[in-house]
Amino acid sequence: MRILLIEDDPMIGETVTDALRRESHAVDWVRDGHEGSLALGHDVYDLIVLDLGLPRRSGIDLLTAFRKDGGTAPVLIMTARDALEDRIHGLDAGADDYLVKPFSVLELAARVRALSRRRGLAPSAVLQHEALTLNITSHEVVFEGKSIALSPREFAVLQALMEDPERVLAKAVIEDKLYGWGQEIESNAIEVHIHSLRRKISPGVIVTVRGVGYRMKAQ
Predict the structure, then answer these.
(1) Tally: H helices and E strands in the chain
(2) Where in 60-205 does DSSP place strands (E)?
């Protein structure tokens, strides 16, 4: 998934960004309400993680405007405001979940997965394609009964392909799923990941559609 993180605290922002990227998400991190408003205007995000106490524009103001403008992506509020009235206010403004700081990054990742399932972004925790099984929750990949060790980005590429195995994914589409703003992308990064997946799993598991992109081998 592509996630927008709106958080002004550098330490929390870095921790959350790293944790979500380890879960194979592409994360764009902005640090104040004005930047958050501009980012939300792009309407490319599958989920938003939102702090309330932001400079330049409050999180509640952002959330209210986002919903008023027709924004439908799930929103997880992440804040130190733990009073009951704050939680009610945030949920009534359009949030889908509310996480109080400090929190465990494991709980954050679990809540993100839950929101994904609830909105149909992750229809199944387990993806199956012939003899290949991918477990999104445990990050386990099994081929012909054998466990396959993949890097987070290899896992993310394979997941993107297995979610719609008959669809041909262009290189740019895969890059969007793997990388957030400011992350350096080598020109041949996707080719390298595909080559590694073929080597670790099976040479024929991923098909190259010349001039278009990649898809899973037809069943």
Answers:
(1) 8, 11
(2) 75-79, 97-100, 126-129, 132-135, 140-143, 146-148
DSSP 202: -
DSSP one-letter string for 67-100: HHTT--S-EEEEES---HHHHHHHHHTT-SEEEE
Question: How far are the Cα atoms of 60, 79, 95, 98, 138 from residue 91, in angstroms, in the given order?
Answer: 10, 13, 5, 7, 29
Provide the b/e sequence for 195-204 (b: ≥16 CB within 10 Å). Answer: eebeebbbee
Structure confidence by residue, pLDDT tens digits, 110-152:
999 888 877 655 445 788 999 999 988 788 999 999 999 998 8
Of 142, 38, 117, nearest in space to 28 by CA: 38
Cβ atoms of 129 and 219 within 8 Å: the answer is yes
Question: Residue 109 is which amino acid?
Answer: A
Model's pTM, two decimal places? 0.67
Whether the Cβ atoms of residue 22 and residue 46 lie closer than 8 Å to each other: no
Measured CA to CA, the distance from residue 159 to residue 72 in angstroms comes to 23
Q: What is the DSSP letter of 170?
A: P
